[in-house]
Amino acid sequence: MRTFKNKKASHNYFFVDEMEAGLILKGTEIKSIRAGKVNFKDSYARIEKGEIWLYSLHISSYKHGNVFNHDPERKRKLLLHKREIRKLKKQVDERGFTLIPKDMYINDDNRVKITLAVAKGKKKYDKREDIKRKDELRDRKRNARFNKMNY
Q1: How far is it, in rounded angstroms, from Cα 138 to Cα 69?
Q2: Distance between CA 11 and CA 130 in Å, rounded?
Q3: Do 101 and 88 meet the contact criterion of CB atoms below 8 Å apart?
Q4: Residue of 34, 40, 36 whose CA lies nearest to 55
Q5: pLDDT in tens, 45-89
Q6: DSSP per residue over 48-108, as a string?
Q7: Positive or negative CA dihedral for 91, 10, 38, 19?
Q8: Residue 151 confidence (pLDDT) above 80
Q9: Which domains does the chain possess?
């Protein structure tokens, strides 16, 4: 199972809820995904007319795709049940959250799945606190390793 993560998402957002969704793709898109040509930068999902669409997910053109290649930045439809879409719409509308793709993977049945997160944007001071906490944790691990080697 191949997994692709949106590394910037946890830096820029607080995650409240997650949901797994299928993704409708063209033939050259799945070949590019298998080759690892995916970029999550600035991607988000929006609910329109009872359907969820994924925007700005860059899947590079397939190298051997010639005239049948896809548009790398086209909007892509996500597959969810109606009750799941209603639940997400309620959260996004009422509380001012946004839908962010957290990661993408190819499951055992060779289907591409996306983990969609209901997220709220972090402020600058929240990002600083996270960086500070990660630095302290890394220093503690480094010191513990160093002290262990001296004994």
Answers
A1: 44
A2: 8
A3: no
A4: 40
A5: 989 998 999 998 888 877 777 777 777 778 899 999 999 999 988
A6: ETTEEEEES-EEPPPTT-GGGPPPTT--EEEE--HHHHHHHHHHHHHH--EEEEEEEEE-T
A7: negative
A8: no
A9: 2-122 (2.40.280.10)
Q: Is the pTM of this model over 0.90?
A: no
Buried/exposed code over 113-142 (b: 16+ C-beta within 10 A; e: otherwise):
bbbbbbbeebeeeeeeeeeeeeeeeeeeee
SS3 6: coil
Taking the C-alpha atoms of residue 23 and residue 51, their distance in angstroms, rounded to an integer, is 12
CA distance linking residue 67 with residue 78, whole number of Å = 25
How far is it, in rounded angstroms, from Cα 32 to Cα 55? 17
Structure tokens at 140: 């503690």
SS3 3: strand
Residue whose C-alpha is closest to residue 119's, from 73, 147, 76, 88: 88
Other CB atoms within 10 Å distance of the CB of residue 54: 22
74: amino acid identity, one letter: R
